[in-house]
UniProtKB/TrEMBL annotation:
Keyword Transcription regulation assigned: no
Protein name, as recorded: tRNA N6-adenosine threonylcarbamoyltransferase
Binding sites annotated in the UniProt record for substrate: 137-141, 170, 183, 187, 283
Cofactor note: Binds 1 Fe(2+) ion per subunit.
Organism: Mesorhizobium onobrychidis
SUPFAM superfamilies: Actin-like ATPase domain
The family this protein is said to belong to: Belongs to the KAE1 / TsaD family.
Substrates-to-products reaction catalysed: L-threonylcarbamoyladenylate + adenosine(37) in tRNA = N(6)-L-threonylcarbamoyladenosine(37) in tRNA + AMP + H(+)
Positions with a binding annotation for Fe cation: 115, 119, 311
């Protein structure tokens, strides 16, 4: 089985061919990601209209490259899987319409994929994980804890009530004059900072409610920065380190609650796993915190390679394969309308 995946929901234009061999082993035959970061850097964030236009310009070439790299002819592709939401609607339209056109012209089935399902199933592509497992998705657009129980069977246990975690990193960076994308730059600055200098709030810590919140933390960072402006390099480093410590602490509290709940709901799981996905999972401090938490709780900690944790089309092709294999690909998605919220 070979599926062509297409991803255009945010600022990555991506295409990939993933195959399943006769023994059921997956193989990524190609994985092309064209990042638009440079186009958005000047604006300090992703601009939807700029992103949509960039997808239009890049997508044909990216798909051609993915097919060429894979060595598979379009004629030998079994299905096309395209992200149909959630995301920026301009990009979704570009990707889904292109997928519909290819599917119609080549007479192939089309599968509309939820971007979050792509993230949720990646650990099965990279690590062969069995259901059920727990997913922590921390990216620029999403902060969620999801119980992944089967293909198409997801239960969201927590979400953010305001900013996504990556967004909080990006906004903190912007306030401190660090370049976009903020996450890696905040982490870099934090390396030489004093994490105890500022006592930032640990949002939701101890709350019985499962969700995340980061806007209060962002406000605390702004107040601290304003109070001591102009900021020296050391001030910036100290704020970044203190911010990161607060985030790690908040995550520790939120995720540990979810691990407990998982134990209760799936008592038969001898070796339960926590999977992390999303760009923020690249952060060393956060990773170390979660690793320690898992070790203490007896959970396996699974972090797929970063390239497959951030936005890519291999995860979309893979979700297509999972759906085909499970017999829940749905009606041919020729009439599917992109859903910015899904
Ligand atoms: O998953 P991703 O590449 O794209 C989507 O948002 O879908 O995530 C990007 C986000 C950005 O907010 C970026 O600042 C953040 O991940 N990020 C990081 C790090 N690297 C990327 N945040 C904290 N520490 C990092 N090292
Ligand atoms: Zn994503």
């Amino acid at each position: 089985m070979r599926v062509l995946g297409i991803e255009t929901s945010c600022d990555e234009t991506a295409a990939s061919v993933v195959a399943l061999d006769a023994g059921g082993a997956p193989k990524i035959l190609s994985d092309i990601v064209f990042s638009q970061i440079e186009e958005h850097a000047a604006f300090g964030g992703v601009v939807p209209e700029v992103a949509a236009r960039a997808h239009v310009e890049a997508l044909d070439g990216v798909i051609e490259a993915a097919l060429a790299d894979s060595g598979v002819d379009l004629a030998d592709i079994d299905a096309i899987a395209a992200t149909a939401g959630p995301g920026l609607v301009g990009g979704l339209i570009v990707g889904l319409m292109t997928a519909k056109a290819i599917a119609a012209a080549a007479n192939k089935p089309l599968i509309a994929i939820n971007h979050l399902e792509g993230h949720a199933l990646t650990a099965r592509l990279t690590d062969g994980l069995d259901f059920p497992y727990l997913l922590l998705l921390v990216s620029g657009g999403h902060t969620q804890i999801v119980a992944v129980r089967g293909v198409g069977d997801y239960q969201r246990w927590a979400t953010t009530i305001d900013d996504a975690l990556g967004e909080a990193f990006d906004k903190t960076a912007k306030m401190l004059g660090l370049p976009y994308p903020g996450g890696p730059n905040v982490e870099k600055a934090a390396a030489t900072g004093d994490a105890t200098r500022f006592a930032f709030p640990r949002p939701m810590k101890g709350s019985a409610q499962p969700d995340f919140s980061f806007s209060g933390l962002k406000t605390a960072v702004r107040q601290a920065a304003t109070a001591i402006a102009p900021l020296s390099d050391q001030d910036v480093a100290d704020i970044c380190a203190s911010f990161q410590a607060a985030v790690a602490d908040a995550l520790d509290d939120r995720v540990s609650r979810a691990l407990n709940r998982f134990r209760q709901e799936f008592p038969g799981e001898m070796e339960p796993a926590l999977v992390v996905a999303g760009g923020v999972a690249a952060n060393r401090t956060i990773k170390t915190t979660l690793e320690a938490l898992c070790e203490k709780a007896g959970f396996a900690f699974v972090a797929p390679p970063l390239k497959l944790c951030t936005d890519n089309a291999a995860m979309i092709a893979w979700a297509g394969i999972e759906r085909l294999r499970a017999g829940i690909a749905g009606e041919n998605a020729a009439d599917f309308v992109p859903r910015s919220r899904w």
